[in-house]
Automatic annotation (TrEMBL):
<keyword id="KW-0813">Transport</keyword>
<dbReference type="GO" id="GO:0005737">
    <property type="term" value="C:cytoplasm"/>
</dbReference>
<dbReference type="InterPro" id="IPR013598">
    <property type="entry name" value="Exportin-1/Importin-b-like"/>
</dbReference>
<dbReference type="GO" id="GO:0005634">
    <property type="term" value="C:nucleus"/>
</dbReference>
<dbReference type="GO" id="GO:0005049">
    <property type="term" value="F:nuclear export signal receptor activity"/>
</dbReference>
<keyword id="KW-0653">Protein transport</keyword>
<comment type="similarity">
    <text>Belongs to the exportin family.</text>
</comment>
<feature type="domain" description="Exportin-1/Importin-beta-like">
    <location>
        <begin position="127"/>
        <end position="264"/>
    </location>
</feature>
<dbReference type="InterPro" id="IPR011989">
    <property type="entry name" value="ARM-like"/>
</dbReference>
<dbReference type="Pfam" id="PF08389">
    <property type="entry name" value="Xpo1"/>
</dbReference>
<dbReference type="InterPro" id="IPR040016">
    <property type="entry name" value="XPO6"/>
</dbReference>
<dbReference type="InterPro" id="IPR016024">
    <property type="entry name" value="ARM-type_fold"/>
</dbReference>
<dbReference type="GO" id="GO:0006611">
    <property type="term" value="P:protein export from nucleus"/>
</dbReference>
<keyword id="KW-0539">Nucleus</keyword>
<protein>
    <recommendedName>
        <fullName>Exportin-1/Importin-beta-like domain-containing protein</fullName>
    </recommendedName>
</protein>
<keyword id="KW-0963">Cytoplasm</keyword>
Length: 998
């Protein structure tokens, strides 16, 4: 009876197999596209059946019977393997045992094992199906080894050691999969963290066995190398490797595989190099370390000889495998240098010169150049230069400096210039229309500032850096792979020119760059040759990198040539909006001056050169026909010259006039330069600041005419007493003042010195007068930026309303920047208290406009614009965070905590309750909460309590409000949209907060 039931079940399964096979053929080969969706759903239902895995097991073994039906066997086998892979995580112990025996049973009836049958060629199983079945088998072990199947790993190892090539190949593949699935963090999906740790520990216990097996099999003439090399690289990277595992026998075997397979089997050679790199990078100290290092060094030399010989004789020099092989060999050499150069240098018997000569042969190999792999050969040189420089190995620099200088000169003249290497560089320059200068745009660069388009606010230091002018732009050397190659090469030259190698490198490279620069510039402009323009930029950057550290005569010549070249470049392109390579050339000329002229000014001041550089900067600051990155380069040049003490050259420099149309970052840098020059002269510094206070005072006087900043009569023409032109002047002046404050803060100037400069005349000082206007100006601008907008279907009305709000929002944003920068630079007494007054004025504007209504979808009438509401709320958080972060005693006694909690509870919390806005508000909220709970902790707790207790009920409510809001935001919960009004008039969260946030 039981046999009859089994026959019926088998017959039913076979019927389903054939029906499923027919469906798969129709799905993949049918022409009726309308049937695809129906068939896909039916096939998904088949996979979801509780017993689908039983059918899949039988189909995997029976699919060979459908071989006469063309693709049906492949479709069915793949479908069955996919069904098994989906089901394996839900099987019980008995199910796992059945699947394991059906796939891989090396101890009993091997003919019934699908994987072994396929490995031995008994069944023609497609590679994709074999891979999935191997994954299923390893997943079973991931779930059940060693509890249910203690012999799991031993069986795989036995298969890898089997004399049959097919069985050994299967064992090697399963070992590699086990290492990857059990160890790599990307493959731990579906198992618990405790099981992940258990698997790593289990594999760690078997590392000696596995490394020994891999070494043994790799020594065989026809061993399955590729999978075992994957296994070894994974083990070395993720398992606890002991020092004795890095045995001479293992290293010798790996080096032998590389040299054996360089020509005929590059993929295996790449795997061996990757495994070698992983072993050498482990910082192991095996027995007889010195001898092992010397032997390894000798093998590295032998490998480099073999690789360069093969590359020079290879016809397939531009294929992907050649590129990857070159890259991995370079990584291996760099790892060896990083880990073991100190040891080999200490031995007089190791030929360091031969090592560098072989690296040079690899670098300038014809195959490396043709394959576009030159950039990957730079890493060993970077490692050597960095190691020698960091350790001050002047004796090694003396022995190898001339050779390194020759390598870098050859690199510059034969590999980095289109004039000598056009075909290889052209292949790297993928996008001829690329415009790197214009891709380097930084937010806040536009003349018209739109705060509603800003990204999330960073921390206070990030904002201060941005207000001070940011960081210099990257080198303007094109885009994509070409830019990376040129930039990294210039950085290598700069590093070599600065350190112990500088004596040999700096003068040689500077002279080489000078020799080609004039002819290259002529060719670029005479023919409008883009490639020549890129070459000229490369030569200018190389000249700057080397010339700044060259002997004084070479430096003076380099600075003179750079000034003349920059003047010629800018005049040649006057009146044209240059883009791409020619705009980059302008930026490169200014960057070169920024390196060379200050270096000369410190060593041998030359007024003519400094004056010429300033003339060039003034020419480049002209916004009418210069791209913004070029203007930024000019502004950085002015700042660099100001810091050299060349004050008399800048004494008549009118910063306000020079930056009339400049973008904010350029204006910030120029004002920082003017401040550097005038800080020693109180009268001159006050003359610099006075024009910045005037627009703010003029606007404040206009506001006084309507009584209070929040007065509204309903007539926009009467209410908006400050015209857009004045508001634009306010924005510009506030940001310039912010740049001065931020620049001093970034440069680390003492607060006392800053305050003396800004407040020499006490309350009559321009800075004091400007800061006094900020509360009323901020309230006025915020109230009008938040002016409710009636929903209208007319886009013209919407645009008109947005246009009317934009100047107010821009001015508010500039004032916020000023308050943050001033608080950071001047401290609480000079600026922080005014910032708190401004926040209170801003809170009054919020009370009038109710920003929460801007996102309440139940309100159908007029409501504040959402973007402005969000921006101003985040701005208020930023101001309070800046004040809270102040470490002055007066700041600790300030009322920042009540104001901050009032802002959070009354305005931030209701907006953050909206799921769409939570992520928008959360970063600013975290910054504020961090500053409150870290820097203002004393405002929350009793000063002399033995245990941490809140100071009073109000402090408790404040603390609870902040913590509830943070917890809810972190957990992704909906925030309470209502608040209770509690003691002291403070609006706080309702006590009935969701229990989940406790």
């Amino acid at each position: 009876m039981q046999q009859q039931q089994q026959r019926q079940q088998s017959s039913s399964s076979m019927a389903r197999m054939r029906a499923t096979g027919a469906m798969l053929v129709e799905f993949y080969e049918g022409s009726d596209t309308s049937r695809k969706a129906v068939l896909n759903e039916e096939l998904s239902e088949l996979r979801r059946r509780p017993e689908a895995w039983r059918d899949a097991l039988e189909w995997v073994s029976q699919a060979r019977d459908l071989g006469s039906q063309g693709g049906e066997a492949m479709y069915l086998a793949y479908f069955a393997a996919s069904a098994l892979e989906e089901a394996v995580g839900f099987l019980d112990g008995e199910g796992r045992r059945m699947v394991r025996l059906a796939l891989f049973a090396p101890v009993e009836d091997q003919s019934a094992s699908a994987l072994l049958s396929a490995a031995r060629g008994a069944v023609a199983t497609p590679a994709a199906v074999r891979t999935r079945l191997c994954k299923v088998y390893v997943d079973i072990g991931k779930a059940a080894w060693p509890q249910e199947m203690p012999e799991f790993l031993d069986e795989i190892c036995a298969a890898a050691l089997a004399p049959d090539p097919g069985t050994a190949a299967l064992g090697a593949e399963l070992l590699a999969l086990c290492a990857e699935e059990f160890l790599l963090p990307t493959n731990r999906r579906g198992i618990t963290a405790s099981r992940q740790r258990e698997l790593r520990n289990l594999v760690g216990q078997h590392v000696p066995q596995l490394v020994g097996l891999v070494t043994e099999v790799l020594k065989r003439p026809h061993g399955e190398a590729r999978a075992l090399l994957r296994c070894l690289a994974t083990l070395v990277g993720w398992a606890p490797l002991a020092a004795d595992h890095a045995s001479p026998r293992l290293l010798e075997t790996l080096f032998r595989i590389v040299e054996r397979d360089l020509l005929q089997n590059k993929r295996t050679a790449i795997g061996a190099v990757r495994a070698l790199d992983a072993v050498l990078a482990k910082r192991l100290v095996p027995p007889d370390m010195a001898q092992l290092v010397m032997e390894t060094g000798g093998r590295v030399l032998s490998l480099l000889r073999a690789v360069t010989s093969v590359l020079d004789s290879s016809d397939s020099e531009d294929d992907d495998e050649t590129q990857e092989l070159v890259g991995m060999v370079c990584e291996l050499v760099a790892t060896f240098v990083e880990q073991h150069l100190p040891r080999v240098v200490a031995s007089s018997s190791f030929p360091v010169g031969d090592l560098l000569s072989l690296i040079a042969s690899l670098t300038f190999s014809r195959a490396v150049n043709a394959a576009g792999s030159l950039r990957r050969t730079l890493r060993p040189w970077e490692t050597v230069v960095g190691f020698v420089s960091e350790n001050g190995l002047h004796h090694l620099a003396a022995a190898t400096g001339e050779g390194l200088a020759g390598v870098l000169e050859t690199l510059l003249k034969t590999r980095l210039l289109f004039a000598s290497n056009a075909s290889a560089l052209d292949a790297l320059d993928e996008d001829d229309a690329s415009d790197f200068c214009f891709l380097k745009s930084v937010r806040h660069h536009h003349h018209h500032h739109h705060p509603e388009e800003d990204d999330e606010p960073g921390d206070i230091e990030d904002l201060i850096l941005n207000l001070a002018g940011g960081e210099p732009d990257p080198r303007a050397l094109g885009d994509d792979e070409l830019r990376l190659l040129l930039t990294e090469s210039i950085e290598l030259i700069a590093a070599a020119a600065r350190g112990p190698f500088g004596t040999y490198v700096a003068d040689k490279i500077a002279v080489a760059a000078l020799g080609d620069l004039e002819a290259t510039l002529t060719r670029a402009f005479r023919n409008q040759d883009k490639q020549a323009a890129v070459d000229a930029a490369t030569l200018l950057y190389a000249l700057a990198a080397a010339g700044a550290n060259a002997p004084e005569a070479t430096l003076a010549r380099a600075a003179t040539v750079a000034v003349e070249a920059a003047r010629a470049i800018l005049r040649e392109q006057r009146g044209t909006q240059q883009r791409g390579a020619f705009a980059n050339l302008e930026a490169a000329a200014l960057d070169a001056l920024r390196e060379l002229v200050p270096a000369l000014a410190w060593r041998a001041p030359d007024d003519a050169i400094v004056g010429g550089a300033l003339d060039v900067a003034a020419l480049a600051l002209d916004a009418s026909n210069r791209p913004e990155p070029v203007q930024r380069g000019a502004a950085w040049l002015v700042l660099a010259l100001a810091k050299t003490g060349a004050g008399h050259h800048l004494s008549n420099f009118d910063a306000w006039a020079a930056t009339a149309t400049s973008p904010p970052r350029c204006r910030a840098l120029v004002y920082r330069a003017a401040a550097c020059v005038s800080i020693s002269s109180p009268d001159r510094f006050e003359a610099l600041v006075a024009p910045l206070a005037a627009p703010l005072e003029a606007a404040a006087r206009g506001i006084e005419r309507i009584g209070t900043p929040l007065s509204f009569s309903g007539d926009a023409k009467r209410d908006d007493v400050v015209d857009p032109t004045t508001l634009e002047a306010v924005s510009r002046a506030a940001r310039s003042l912010a740049a001065l404050c931020a620049g001093f803060a970034k440069d680390g100037a003492a607060r006392g010195a800053i305050a003396t400069a800004f407040f020499r005349n006490g309350d009559a000082s321009p800075t004091r007068r400007a800061l006094r206007t900020t509360p009323s100006l901020l309230a006025y601008c915020a109230a009008r930026a938040l002016r409710p907008a009636t929903a209208s279907g007319d886009p013209r009305l919407a645009r008109a309303a947005a246009s009317a709000r934009a100047p107010h929002l821009a001015a508010a944003a500039a004032i916020v920047d000023l308050l943050i920068a001033a608080s950071r630079a001047l401290g609480h007494d000079k600026a922080g208290a005014v910032a708190l007054d401004s926040v209170r004025a801003l809170l009054a504007a919020f009370d009038l406009a109710n920003p929460a209504v801007s996102v309440d979808r139940r309100v159908s009438g007029s409501r504040p614009p959402r973007a402005a509401a969000l921006y101003l709320l985040k701005a208020a958080c930023q101001i309070l965070a800046a004040v809270a972060a102040d470490n002055e005693a007066s700041a600790k006694r300030s009322q920042v905590v009540p104001d901050a909690c009032d802002l959070i509870a009354r305005h931030v919390a209701p907006l953050a309750a909206d799921a769409d806005l939570k992520a928008d508000l959360f970063p600013a909220l975290v910054q504020l909460a961090k500053r409150l709970l870290v820097d203002q902790w004393a405002a929350f707790v009793k000063p002399s309590s033995r245990k941490t207790e809140c100071r009073d009920d109000r402090a408790t409510h404040f603390f609870d409000a902040i913590c509830d809001l943070l917890a809810a935001a972190v957990r992704g919960l909906d925030l309470p949209a209502t608040c209770d009004v509690r003691g002291g008039g403070q609006c706080l969260f309702a006590a009935k907060t969701n229990d989940a946030v406790e």
